[in-house]
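#struct-help
A.M.: can someone run this one for me? Single chain, 178 residues.
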Amino acid sequence: MDNDQFVKIVTLDLPKSSTLEVYRDIFLFLCYTGLSFCDAIDLKHSDIKNGIIALKRKKTKVQTKQFLAKQTLELIWKYKGVIPEDRILPKRSLDKMNLNLKLIAAKTEIDFSLSTYTARRYFRQSIFESGIRERLVIKSLMGHTSRNDIDSHYFNVSDAVLKDAKKILQKHFKKLLR
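D.P.: on it. Structure tokens below:
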């Protein structure tokens, strides 16, 4: 997915009561965070402290930490108090999610099948396009392991480094929607 297609999804005019709105919001959350669907869909407000998600990825058990961009926080605030169980996103199945993403693709004239995996790939591409090049920062944001990486022994991905990454990504996403 390229930036023009991303903008088409963000700006797609959907009625508030549209079923597709929820699926688009979940997809955008994945685009803004790079989290996998299974990691994102069960997140609770208690998992976020001061705009920071720190979690152990379900699939890999790798610890990941991310300062959330303004765009992500806006999606979280949209559903705060509306969803039971303190969830930050409405609970949906992966099958229904990917089915509804196909409908969104059709409405935006995107000529390939959108999926939750597309969102994760888009986040990785956004990291690159925004100029973040430090491998351990990328691995941290993506929730990949760095155990066998020599830098993991000598380079610390501090909160300051992650805050800088958040600001850079936030600016990148904002620039796309001007």
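A.M.: thanks! The chain has one domain: 3-176.
D.P.: also worth noting: The domain at 3-176 is CATH 1.10.443.10 (hpI Integrase; Chain A).
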